[in-house]
Amino acid sequence: MDQTQNSKSKRISPLSIRLSKEERELLVQQAGNLSLAGYIKSVVFADNAPCYRTRRQTPEMDAKLLAELLAHLGSSRVASNLRVRTHSQ
Q1: What is the 3-state secondary structure (H, E, C) of the chain?
Q2: d(CA 46, CA 40)
Q3: 66, 59 in Cβ contact below 8 A?
């Protein structure tokens, strides 16, 4: 790769700004499924903004189901057997 291609592919250092808690919450709400960086770029560079990736959705945990699963694991011998197997190797 020559010098001109190498310099074009490198990004410059990130820009950071300080926001109040309320300002950040408003940005997150306005961004919807976009990442904050993608949303801000699309607003600032609205005239020629490319499409940005949407933010990954975090799976919601079912606390009751998780508690039941952990209770069953604790009452079975699976955890004990796993501990014994890991120490024996």
Answers
A1: CCHHHHHHHCCCCCCCCCCCHHHHHHHHHHHCCECHHHHHHHHHCHHHCCCCCECCCCCCCCHHHHHHHHHHHHHCCHHHHHHHHHHHC
A2: 9
A3: no
Distance CA 53, CA 36 (A): 11
pLDDT digits (tens, 9 = 90+) for 23-43: 999 999 998 888 888 888 888
pTM of the model: 0.43
What is the distance, to the nearest Å, from the Cα of residue 16 to the centroid of all Cα atoms in its chain?
18
Q: Do residues 33 and 54 touch, judged by C-beta distance below 8 A?
A: yes
Q: Nearest Cα to 30, choosing from 16, 40, 15, 19?
A: 40
